Amino acid sequence: MLAKQFRLQIQKWLRENKKTTTRKSEFFIVKLRDNNLSFSRFGTVISAKVNKSAVKRNKIKRTIFNFIRFKKLHELAGKDILMIVLPAASKLTKPEIEKELEIIL
Predict the structure, then answer these.
(1) CATH number, domain containing residue 79
(2) What is the rounded CA–CA span in Å between residue 96 and residue 52?
(3) Cα(42)–Cα(38) distance, rounded to whole angstroms?
(4) Is 20 helix (H, G, I), strand (E, B) or coil?
(5) Rg from Cα positions in the chain
(6) Which residues does 96 contact at the CB level (< 8 Å), separation at least 6?
């Protein structure tokens, strides 16, 4: 899991009206914003439509955060990144999720 300072407070982030850049793939929607900090913050949204089992949703979330931590993406300066997981992602394996994240990030 990521350290607390690298996690995005999603509710507060969504209320702010700032310019957001969006990237979309078959499995993820990624929203990017500048944050004027020396590090990046990450958040994920995984709804019950992705998978009804909370265990499987948390497994996807852990895969995403571990990918970010191991690739040291949180050390990149000045971005808030919100990843919305789409239902098609529930059929992916861990290496496939990591490959898709490399492409979209």
Answers:
(1) 3.30.230.10
(2) 21
(3) 14
(4) coil
(5) 13
(6) none
- DSSP class per residue in 24-75: E-SSEEEEEEE--SSS-EEEEEE-TTT-S-HHHHHHHHHHHHHHHHHTTGGG
Domain span holding position 81? 4-104
- Token pair 């990144």 in the structure block, residue: 81
- Count CA atoms closer than 13 A to 47's CA, side-chain side: 7
pLDDT, one tens digit per residue, over 10-66 is 999 989 888 999 999 999 999 999 988 888 999 999 999 999 999 999 999 999 999
DSSP state of 78: S
Residue whose tokens read 């690739």 = 71
